[in-house]
Input
Amino acid sequence: MADVSVISKVLVHLSLIRWSCIILAPIFLQACSTDLFDDELHTTPEAKYVLPYHVGKTYSCTQGFNSNPSHFGSFSYSVDFGMSIGTIITAARNGRVVYVVESNSDSDRTAVF
Output
């Protein structure tokens, strides 16, 4: 397991808008545990970032960079993937997914960081 001091500073923001979506943006993470996350990332050395789900799985990209309805400002370089609620999320870089916020709702949207 990776040491907390070297954990990647990557936010995994999971929006639930009729499906689950993952949005990636940089922030500092704090430690916690949840069954929704695979806390270890096993990747190839040449990859700087990998998709935030298990190798071999495929999901549709539902929203990309600088796009409506929500990828502007601090979320400009976010990417959403259509996923079922409860899908395992993995770290996008070497490290661990360590923090989840299970709040932040906006009308029919619920966000999990």
Notes: The two ends are 21 Å apart (CA to CA). Residues 1-113 form one domain.
